[in-house]
Amino acid sequence: MKKRVFLSLFAFASFCSANAQSYLGYIPDNYAGVQGVLYNPASIADSRFKADINLFSISSSVGNDLYGVKIFDVFKSGYDFDLEAKKNFSNANNAVFNIDAMGPSFMFNIAPKHTLAVFTRARAFLNVIDVNGKVINDITKDNSTSFPSATVGSANAVGNSWGELGISYAAVLYQKGQHFLKGGITAKYLQGVANYHLQATGVTMAYNENLILPQNSTYTTTGSVVYGSSQDFAANSDLDIDSKSKGFGVDLGLVYEWRPEYTADRADINDLKEVNKYKLRFGLSLTDLGSVKYDKGVRNNYNLNKTITQANYDSADNFDEFLKNNYPNTVVNGDVKSYLPTALHADVDWNIHNKFYLNTNVDLGVVSKTKLNQNSIANRVSITPRYESKWFSAYVPLSYMDYSKQAQVGLGLRTGVFFIGSGSIISNVVSKSSRAADFHLGMKIPFYQKKAKDQDGDGILDKDDACPEVAGPVENKGCPWGDKDNDGILDKDDKCPDVAGPAANKGCPWGDKDKDGVLDKDDKCPDVAGPAENAGCPWGDKDNDGVLDKEDKCPTVAGPKENAGCPWLDTDGDGVLDKDDKCPKVKGTLANGGCPEVTKEVIKKLNDYSKSVLFDSSKATIKAESNSKLEEIVKVMNEYNNANFKLEGHTDSTGSAAKNLQLSKDRAAAVKNYLIAKGISADRLSSEGYGITKPIASNKTVAGRTENRRVEIILVK
């Protein structure tokens, strides 16, 4: 029990550290309103609100990397962390606590592209990092005898609370086509409330227990501690808020939006206030630049290289008195400056479809966590899918924070005037070893943007339309141009406003003497009607065969219309005119339709080629080296255009008969399809497979099986 008393020197602020982001999951919502300035002051420009009034809202979180608990058991009477929590002590433990309360606040548009917000806010940050949890655990055990000495280390602790009065200004910086950029700045007056800070350097501690005279038990310590506060609490334990304890802070932010719906026909999209216009939104902000200076602050540097007794500790009424009575100290300075937790925030918001969004957010501390009296955030990465509408939103944040070192899953809801959520509620319900918890809620009065009206649907909003009930161009302020002759040429541009005419003639009609529909300016025969294809001149027929020269392939020699004005020929000189010759390029007989007879030699020639056609093993895929043989088959078949052929597939006896039968059919069909693809009429070809049933050699030898794997070509009579 005696060893526990020295714990207070290093358990300052209960291992606390600042959370990365308040209102987790709620801030990215386009209807977050005035809360959005806390994360990125640019967010309120071009918002869905005319005005938004926050009545009250709060966000709080707690986390650590020492204890894992079933979160709802903690609230039960008699819960003992030492006995029931899962412990994870290390040489550098941390934990987390943050509370952020927003009082009466509001935002409103001062112009279409300019917005102001004024907010009140109370905040408390507590940081302790690099505490030797193993030592603390050992000290707190009443019956421990394993603590003769220990290295406590170099812990850094900061506890700070203050109020904020902030004013934010945001504006549209750039707007062109699909690209939209807005920026914002927040200036904050800070009223300090209370501050504690401690920085230990190389602290060690040894305990020597005197069982006979406990009051003579000794503590031997080494190292040094800088310890300070916003006021001398040893002299006055009541909190004294000093109006001179103040400071200033600044937040900066940019937001870029990609708006692909912007087109020449939808140029008004950027001016619509009531709808979401982006497909992707990128945000970047730097928050909490500044500090609070406590006018009555005290800070001392204590030299711990000393041995003290239990009686020395017991005689002190409080921790401050204990340090002052037992350790030599020097005053570091007469006032105390506490630095804000400056952080960089980046997020990407993707409008997946309609009202469904996916937000990815990163929060990074950009200050040293070991600096004296420096608050710092815990880095966090979060992904939040959400459904968002005017009066309702639901979001499910998934996050990971570097202090608790656990993934968290939460849930949040917004109903217009009320919102509530937690970044960890789902994981806390499921997990038996939670190391973090948070929640946020608030009440507000929203004043949403009204839907812009465009009665005539001309893309010009009624407020800018000089003729709101009649569609008209932007150039004429939404009013239509006149067109008396209805020729599509506006009267302001029409040289013949009372007579219709083409645009090329500035609204005046062209002449057409022969009334053939070809204007005289384009008519090569202006006095004789002719088609436009012949530049207004009639078509001729030189050979008087009734086929116009434009369609006559032999304009100087008479021929029938069926042969495009050319006489029929007998190209191969076999006495059969080409129009009746099925083989016009090969001499044949009249009885065979002008084609030569297919002889046994021709069939043999075809089969010599077909037997050389090779396939991939056990497949009907023709190998590329067979293409030359197939091309020869095509040439022969083209010479005998009136002959029909059957392709027969055969295999060797290797494998099952059923598979070989199907393979032979597939291979014969593959050759047939190849020939058809090369121009042989499908009506002339058929195919069939016979598997192993028609061998032409013995299947007992390799050579015989090779011969049996073939595609034969048969003349069909």
UniProtKB/TrEMBL annotation:
PROSITE patterns: OMPA_2
Signal peptide bounds: 1-20
GO biological process entries: cell adhesion
PANTHER family per the UniProt record, alphabetical: LIPOPROTEIN YIAD-RELATED, STATOR ELEMENT OF FLAGELLAR MOTOR COMPLEX
Keywords: Cell outer membrane, Membrane, Signal
Localisation: Cell outer membrane
GO molecular function, one term: calcium ion binding
SUPFAM superfamilies xrefs: OmpA-like, TSP type-3 repeat
Residues covered by the OmpA-like domain: 602-717
Name of the molecule in the record: OmpA family protein
Gene Ontology CC terms, in alphabetical order: cell outer membrane
